[in-house]
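Input/output pair, single chain:
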Amino acid sequence: MGKRIINFGVIGCGLMGKEFASAAARWCHLKDLDFEPRIIAVCDTNLEATKWFQDNVPSVKKTTSDYRELLTDPEIEAVYCAVPHNLHKQLYIDIINAGKHLLGEKPFGIDKEANEAIMEAVKAHPEVLVRCSSELPFFPGAYRLIELIREGRFGRIIEVEAGLWHSSDLNPDKPINWKRRVATNGEYGCMGDLGMHVLHVPFRFGWKPRNVRALLSKIVTERPDQQGNRVPCETWDNAILACEVEHENGDFPMILSMKRIAPGHANTWFLRISGTRLSAEFSTKEPKRFACLPYEPGGEQAWHTLDAPYRTAYPTITGEIFEFGFSDSILQMWAAFCDELVNGPDMLQPFGCVTPEEAALSHELFTAALESQRSGQTVRISGSAES
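Output:
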């Protein structure tokens, strides 16, 4: 039996659309999969942006500036949509209502109201697979940490710290773009742009904050526009969220951080878990380094470090001694989406893409974080301040 071909349309021909196309072109890198994505149509309001796909993706048969042409195309089974946050509500709802499976970008709506409308469409179409993009937890070191959580190896959790930091906005002369405007990015700022990557693993294992104390920072307040004029930079650059998590083995604090201005960090995702039986940490800053501290009562407390082998959720042709990178993590994420589309709950491995319900939880958290920043108080995720 041949491979199941999944015909995709891409809406938004920017960087991440190209990354998906590159991942699809590298599908032979994955071993023993009986499914494969194929991009047959692309859409962008700027038709010039589709030219790269025409030049580099032989399977593309259609280019258009009207996304509705993709939704009425019977050949297209699924859509990858990567557009600014203010467009999520209309496009995601239209894609879902058209019966197309969807991998969308975070935060799944510019605000909580938009997300609630998207969730209504999700609930109305249970036959449609809807997931949110988050590739960084597919690094081998991160995936190893995820397996340890699944196996319950940590004992009682003492605390968790997770974050995504980069420094591309440190330069005050970097021109303003849609991510620095509330109208297109939303009030969440860096939380909406980076937060789902940070929350993917905690939410997957039920670590849901019951409250939050937020420290949000606007560091660069003006940037040049296309004419060189200095204009207001409206959105939050950095966010530190201190949360309490209710857990059956005992509550614990969780610190979440999303930073666009973290000097020296190109794109650092990290997760640190301290527990009474095991502590472990992984960061893409040193992508081969995995560290853990196993502990028995009365025993030594010694950190162990090792080079994490190239051992991935979906096996590849790459030998274990070699290095894993960002494009590899995107390939693994796409394999997870296609796997779930084809095999449903009987996926070939258990860690899937972000669910719509997890994206909705992020909106609860970020909305409460905005309230916390305004009031200077710890705020319950339901929205009422704690006494």
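The chain has two domains: 4-132, 136-322+355-375. Confidence is low (pLDDT under 50) at residues 383-387.
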